[in-house]
Amino acid sequence: MADGGSWADARLRAAWASNDWAAIFREYRRASGASQLTLGSLVGMPQSHVSLIENGKRQVTSADVIARITEGLDVPDELRGLPERPDSASATWGPDPELSERIARAHSTGRIDVRSADWIARVLAEHRRAEDVIGGKDLWPVVRSQLDAVTRLLPVASGSVADRLLILAGEHAHWLSWVAASEGQRGAAFAWLDLANGWAVDAGSADMASWVTRVRSYYTLNHGDPVRALRTAEVAQQAPGLLSPGASSIAAHAAALAAAAVGERDRSRRLAQESYELALRVPDPADRPGWLYWLDPVRAKLNYGEAAHAARDWSVAVDAFREGLEGLEGFPRDQAFYAARLEDAQQRM
Predict the structure, then answer these.
(1) Cβ count near 333 (within 10 Å)
(2) Cα separation of 102 and 330, whole Å?
(3) 304-330 burial, b if ≥16 CB within 10 A, otherwise e?
(4) In whole angstroms, how far apart are CA 347 and each of 70, 110, 344?
(5) CA-based end-to-end distance of the chain
């Protein structure tokens, strides 16, 4: 039997979403450690055929062969039957109305296997970590399919399980918003945020509601409206005593950036220091919300540098960026971003 745990790997799931059989075989073997011979035994084909498929010299077109691969590799339910990619990707960026309808029925009574939610949460965590390398667009159909799986569980959930699923749905919606925004689909990005915020409120999650509002502030600031961005960031902070230190840190950071953009530099400095100190209170990922897995002391220092850069405190920004970059590993796009910020600050000193 195949190693089902291998399907938490984001590169493997992206290959499946792309219907790239050569990549599916290669990525499955990488994720599972299986040889071509072992993979062949799982899918019912000789090692020589596996080699030909991996090298692009043999195509997989037979429905019977595809079914054997799907069963043999134990492909998760949420990946089976993924729709073909449409010619116009923009037609699929926004959320489906059906999602809201499913959520509206979330408060009926019933029981579900919580392991399903655990699995999907684990996979989403893998996607977050892989996005910097793979790119969100390739994982888009997979995450949308996962969100469908989450919302299908909701009508038979209740109580704390329903709340947990609502938060998980909100995490997926935020991820989809982030990818849509990176692809220039601003309207879709805000639509996904609206869904995520509603689900966070339904679940009673102040942290998730604050985080989604902080992302809205970030989008607004990047599109040249710092006054509205500051007002939105202030809303993200408006849960005194309810927000975890990690969520409070990020809300304060958003407000620091927006305050600097409207010329309130002293306020920006105070908020940046507050954000940094709050982040240092939760160095252990287990003490932070799942979507803030990245907010370790290294990231806290880089956030501090970004706020100093926004406030035109060039020497402070240089020191913070240098220190943070020394500890930042495994995020090439972020490394490039902060290295460019460091160079800019150095030139302005």
Answers:
(1) 11
(2) 37
(3) bbbbbbbbebbebbbbbbebbbeebee
(4) 55, 61, 5
(5) 61
Q: Where are the domains of the chain?
A: 4-79, 92-186
Task: Give the amino acid at 321.
Answer: F
Superfamily (CATH) of domain 4-79: lambda repressor-like DNA-binding domains (1.10.260.40)
What residues contact 129, with CB distance under 8 A and at least 6 apart? 10, 293
Taking the C-alpha atoms of residue 221 and residue 58, their distance in angstroms, rounded to an integer, is 50
Closest by CA to 124, choosing from 293, 285, 272, 284, is: 293
Q: What would the pLDDT profile of 281-334 be if each residue is shown by its tens digit?
A: 998 888 898 889 889 999 999 999 999 999 999 999 999 999 999 999 878 888
- What is the value of pTM for the model shown? 0.74
Residue range 262-285, pLDDT digits in tens? 999 999 999 999 999 999 999 888
Q: Determine whether 83 is exposed, middle or buried from the number of CB atoms within 10 Å of its CB (0-12, 13-18, 19+).
A: exposed
Match 């982040």 to its residue by tokens: 279
| Residue whose pair of structure tokens reads 């925004």 in the numeric block | 181
What tokens were used for 235?
A: 């809303």
Sequence-ordered list of residues with C-beta below 8 angstroms from that of 94, at least 6 positions apart, any chain: 180, 185, 187, 188, 191, 192
Contact 267, 258 (CB under 8 A): no
The answer to whether 168 touches 121, Cβ cutoff 8 Å, is yes
